[in-house]
Amino acid sequence: MVGGGLLRLLLDWIVPSTCAGCGAERMEVGGSGACRCCWGSIRELDPAAACPGCALPAAGGRCRDCGDTPSPISRAAAFGEYDGTLKTLISAYKFHGFDILSAPFAERLARLARSSGLEQGAPAVVGVPSTRSRNRQRGFDPGVLLARETARRLGLQTLPALRRLRSSPPQSRLSRSDRMANVAGVFEGTASAAGRPVLLVDDIVTTGATAFAAARALHRAGTSRVHLLVLARTLVPVGPTAPECA
Questions:
Q1: Domain extent listing, the chain
Q2: pLDDT digits (tens, 9 = 90+) for 143-175
Q3: Which residues in the chain show pLDDT less than 50?
């Protein structure tokens, strides 16, 4: 009993025992961070119907914004809609200690990179770094960790090709124009990606402001082409935050 109790305590410490999406007790083994019901409820997006400049569904062509203002992204794909379960899981990953979700997130991004062909045109992966203060609070950098886990599954190199020069207010409550201004000059590209195409990995794209700022910084540093692989894309006003899982 003592040994079994210690083992249970150890497992509870290593792997969260509740689903990050619905809070139900997870019974299956594997450490995926969420129950099968939650993973199955995510609305995945079709990369063939995505705007190549920002991953917004646009019947395979460029969306109006990317048509009006050329995007620094050559090709883009998003795994799912930033709504419902996926929104809840990303929040758990970034703000509630569920860094264990980096592995299943990366598995889905790697699968998307292969199916969309993004991995073929960019032999190195770059993550979008967060601020030092936020990383200290979390204990990790969510964008960089996601990029590293994705690169490992694709068998690609991870490049520390972006530096964040300063902190900026959170983007979530800003308008599109304010978001663009908020991240202007935030990133600096390094020489490690000069002359090379890269696969930029990010967790969320809402207006594209952060991803565009990162891509422009990479271009200024000499990167030849930037592809974007993103976990979630905002499409419409969000609905319920989680499904009802048994």
A1: 44-233
A2: 999 999 999 999 999 999 999 886 555 545 544
A3: 1-2, 171, 174-175, 237-244, 246
> What is the Cα–Cα distance from 209 to 202, expressed in whole angstroms?
12
For residue 62, which amino acid is it?
Answer: R
What amino acid occupies position 196?
A: R
Q: How far apart are alpha carbons 48 and 173 in whole angstroms?
A: 30
Give the torsion sign (CA, 136, 137, 138, 143): negative
What residues are paired with 225 via a beta bridge?
Answer: 197
d(CA 34, CA 103): 12
Residue type (1 letter), 37: C
CB 217 within 8 A of CB 67: no
Residue 97: per-residue pLDDT: 87
Note whether 203 and 232 are within 8 A (CB).
yes
Angstrom distance (rounded) from CA 224 to CA 86:
32
Distance CA 96, CA 18 (A): 12
Residue keyed to tokens 């032999």: 123
What number of other Cβ atoms are within 10 A of residue 53's Cβ?
26
- What are the backbone angles phi and psi of residue 197, rounded to the nearest 5°? -75, 145
**Domain 44-233 architecture:** 3-Layer(aba) Sandwich (3.40)
Which residue, 154, 147, 242, is CA-closest to 203? 147
